[in-house]
Design brief:
The protein has 7 helices and 15 strands. The strands form 3 sheets. It has a 10-stranded antiparallel beta sheet, sandwiched between helices. It has a single domain, classed as 2-Layer Sandwich (HIT family, subunit A), CATH 3.30.428.10. With 341 residues, the chain is of the alpha+beta class. A hairpin with a 3-residue loop joins strand 10 and strand 11.
């Protein structure tokens, strides 16, 4: 019989359709063919991208080859940096200018490598670049939320195969984030505990959805996973700010990310996936409503979602907001725990 499960963070229901019975081994995905031809992110083509914002270089001049990681504005941005939001009413509706920032973090000079292939040290450098850009963008009081996300594979939305991550700053708090923030705040107001901390403690005690655990981080398949092999990485101890994850702790996160993506690759081949950093919104934007997320340091717990794109949403999902997952997270977690690396 199918199982209806509720996600207390996003306040949504998920159908775990066990009778559809797709075993983890059935999701093995062949590597996506890396198309040849011109790539603007490859070394030697720096002149074809907008001028770099930041780069980790080996003593070479800006906008030339000799870099390890490079950040450039998106050539076709969803939101533009110039101007003011200018929020206005249009009858019953609201509108504002498409103000924000849209940047691309080119993760490596290599066209074919990705997180399972990178060294822990290189992933640590990538994470430090994310933090540098987030700190800089947080200083702009027009921006209310900053999103770090990766699309890997064309099905997951990647238009270029070269490994890269994107950072977008928005002048509003996205609905998904607002629901998450409110759920965490409501839980704290009733129980004086962090919702994510409670989830982590329970998952560690039960163990059935635990993929891995270190001194600093846990990786679990969420109880109400929307998709097969969906994963959740979070600090083991309460932490509201990703920007405070520095030094040895950040390197430990890099090691956990490498291990997790290596397990996914060993289990599933080269699946298309998205990952998303759920970080605290900026409370420095002016003007803002009284009390706007003022308890973040107590009730918010930053985390990372990894979503392999192994199934597709159809009419039922779009019409109801339900997700149908044919693989119980307990099975996915067991498969990832036991895979030979």
């Amino acid at each position: 019989m199918s199982d209806l499960r509720h996600d207390p963070i996003q306040r949504r229901w998920v159908i775990i359709a066990t009778e559809r019975g797709q075993r983890p081994s059935e999701f093995k995905t062949p590597p996506e063919e890396k198309k040849g031809g011109f790539c603007p992110f490859c070394p030697g083509n720096e002149h074809t991208t907008p001028p770099e914002i930041l780069a980790r270089r080996r003593g070479t001049a800006p906008n030339t080859a000799g870099w390890d990681i490079r950040v450039v504005p998106n050539k076709f941005p969803a939101l533009r940096i110039e101007g003011d939001p200018d929020r206005t009413g249009v009858g019953l509706y609201d509108r504002m200018n498409g103000i924000g920032a849209h940047e691309v973090v080119i993760e490596s000079p290599s066209h074919t490598d990705c997180f399972p292939d990178f060294s822990v040290e290189h992933i640590d450098r990538i994470l430090s670049v994310y933090q540098d850009r987030l700190r800089d963008l947080q200083g702009d009081q027009r921006f209310r939320y900053l999103l770090v996300f990766k699309n890997h594979g064309s099905i997951a939305g990647a238009s270029l195969a070269h490994p890269h991550t994107q950072i977008i700053a928005t002048p509003i708090t996205p609905r998904t984030v607002s629901i998450e923030l409110q759920s965490m705040k409501d839980h704290f107001m009733v129980k004086e505990r962090c919702l994510v901390c409670d989830i982590i403690h329970q998952e560690l005690d039960m163990g059935v959805r635990l993929v891995s655990a270190t001194e600093d981080f846990v990786v679990v398949a969420p109880y109400a996973s929307r998709f097969p092999f969906e994963l959740f990485i979070a600090p083991r101890r309460h932490a509201h700010s990703f920007l405070a994850c520095e030094g040895g702790m950040r390197r430990n996160l890099a090691a956990v990310m490498k291990d997790t993506f290596t397990r996914l690759k060993a289990s599933l081949g080269d699946p298309p996936f998205n990952f998303v950093f759920h970080i605290a919104p900026s409370i420095s934007r002016q003007p803002h409503r009284s009390g706007y997320w003022q308890t973040l340091q107590f009730d918010f717990h930053w985390h990372i979602e990894i979503i392999p794109r192994l199934t597709r949403m159809a009419g039922f999902e779009w019409g109801t907001g339900f997700y149908i997952n044919p693989t119980p997270p307990e099975d996915a977690a067991k498969y990832l725990r036991e895979v030979e690396l």
